[in-house]
Amino acid sequence: NLYEEPLRGQFHFSPMRGWNNDPNGMVFYNGEYHLFFQHNPYGWAWGNMTWGHAVSKDMVHWEELPSALLPDEMGPMFSGGAVVDWKNTSGFGKDGKPPMVVFYTAAGNPTVQCMAYSNDGRHFTKYEGNPIIKEISGGNRDPKVVWHEPTKSWVLVFYVELGGVHTMHFFTSPNLKEWTFASKIDGFFECPEFFEAPVDGDATKKKWVLSGASSDYRIGSFDGKTFTPETSMLPGQRGKDFYAAQAFSDQPDGRHILIGWWRTETRGMPFNQSMSIPLDLRLVQTAEGPRLTYTPVKELEALRAKSHRIAPQSLKPGDKNPLDDIRAELVEVRAEFEPGEADEVIFNIRDVMVVYDAKKQEFSVNGHRAPAPLIDGKQRITIFCDRTGVEAFASDGLCFIPMPINLKGENRRLYLETRGGAAKIASLEVHELRSAWK
Ligand code: FRU
């Protein structure tokens, strides 16, 4: 049945049919989250780039709608972002209601930046004045637009390959139609994300974050024209096959919620690839300076079908597996522990090895390792497991390892063990999850 195929992620968005890559045009508009995506409606592999479209009330349950932007005489529809034009600066609004405006790359010859708008979140009209930015080089694409309140202007940041150098260009506009070059910065590749967020939730300490498609990022300040980095390039996610992540514009509660293209390979399925779970991004102050943390959005709690809370315990090598009684396909595991004498705390989730190496303070998924410091002597780990892999989090989100792996449907066992000595397990929860498609 539709959405029940063996390799269909059950709480990860994927299109009904055909290929997807990047999330596009992520915006909250008229009470709905909109997720557009790079889509091939006619094939299993990349091609015929079209903007697919889905909507959700909670970012967890998605309904796919007809494609929003079809290829035209200017080319296929490559990636970009969206905004709500609250003040109707563009004049695209209707009946006193603000329009949704989406930005995309028409990847023809020349390759140019364009826009389209909608007054109902269902029908899209391409702007008759397209392109809004002419070709700078053949490799220019992926416009992301944000509102800059202090200068009361729109800012468009996009990727431009200049003589082999990867750059981001910033343009500004009063009305989304006329754009003026403002600045450029080297060292970022494809699909920018750019937002301002408070450090440790303190609204008086806001910083801007600029990232490229890999999620590597720099934190700094922005005066409306120039981004001035205050950190070196930092790794965002530390896993594999997570790319081109974008955050929702106009998020009503001010959170920065990101979805990435999760390159799950779904051979034999009528669709290919999928999206990550929605991730809540925050800036926290660490001893090394401000850093991004990634945590699963709280809306995912709606998927919990049955919860197991396991008693706190000292777990030593050879002890009975505390997860022995549980069988689950879709699962969320949360644990808090002090490693104590243990060298390793090992979760086996349906044959995926999620390991905390206490000696090295490293976290790993199937051997793919990343630094994961203890925080106040404790480690807190969250693991989401779907048919197509796991997303694992440690160190309160400082360490995020997405890892697509096609799991064996029949293996529903979970294990927890320690090596080298006892660890103090302060809390351990396993939530069996339901499908988001039902
Ligand atoms: C990133 C990307 C973008 C481009 C799109 C085309 O995955 O290469 O730069 O707009 O995919 O599908």
Give a description of the structure.
The chain contains no helices and 35 strands. By secondary structure, it is mainly beta. It folds into two domains: 279 residues, Tachylectin-2, Chain A, CATH 2.115.10; 130 residues, Jelly Rolls, CATH 2.60.120.560. The strands form seven sheets. Strands 24, 25, 26, 31, 32, 33 and 35 form a seven-stranded antiparallel β-sheet that branches. Strands 4-3-2-1-20 form a five-stranded mixed β-sheet, with no helix packed on it. Strands 5, 6, 7, 8 and 9 form a five-stranded antiparallel β-sheet that branches. The relative contact order is 0.14. The structure holds beta-D-fructofuranose. The site of beta-D-fructofuranose has 14 residues, from strand 1, strand 10 and strand 18. Keywords: Glycosidase, Hydrolase, Signal.
Quick recap of the structure?
0% of the residues lie in helices and 51% in strands. The chain is an all-beta fold and 438 residues long. The strands form seven sheets. Strands 24, 25, 26, 31, 32, 33 and 35 form a seven-stranded antiparallel beta sheet that branches. A five-stranded mixed beta sheet has the order 4-3-2-1-20, with no helix packed on it.
